[in-house]
Amino acid sequence: MSSECPRIALHVCCGPCASAVVERLRERFVVEALWFNPNIQPQDEHDHRLASMRKLAREISLPLTVRPYQPDRWEEACLGRMGDPEGGERCLICYELRLRAVAQFALERGIETIASTLTVSPHKPAARINPIGQRVAADHGLTFLDEDFKKRDGFLRSVQLGKQYRLYRQDYCGCLPSRRQGATG
Fold this sequence. Notes:
Strand 4 (113-116), helix 5 (126-139) and strand 5 (143-144) form a beta-alpha-beta unit. The protein has 185 residues and is α/β, with parallel strands linked by helices. The two termini are 30 Å apart. The chain is built from 7 helices and 5 strands. The chain has a single domain (7-181), classed as Rossmann fold, CATH 3.40.50.620. Helix content is 48%, strand content 11%. Helix 1 (15-25) runs parallel beside helix 2 and helix 4 (89-109) packs across helix 5.
């Protein structure tokens, strides 16, 4: 990838999802990744997923910035929403919290475009995530890459690459309510 290609700040939610999205984005961008996932609980689960993401970053030479684990920020943002069904208002709040973090990261790094790996999951609707990303980007004077990464077999590719790199694949979205509801990531 040429250094003349535009840069993109990518919010990454886990190693397997990031693998396929980064592969696709590198066709057009120089990718810089941000790990900020205060929704993932308990902490040992967060740390396990982060270790997997760090492993992938080493394997594919992906610049990865890790923000501190702050589950209290997520809990405060989602206050009163713990009983929401999976995919409800709590999830939208969570998406926005993480997209705002990648927007701030992009501003710090002088990057004009942001994206997230969230839409590679068959359980995460691009039709709900992308408008949030567009709004957050506009609020920060940035561009949001409005894509549904599960298309063109993106999720299947994430499964393949996850196996190839021997990455941990979680069995729930990340937050404790999703774990209780049995929602997969």
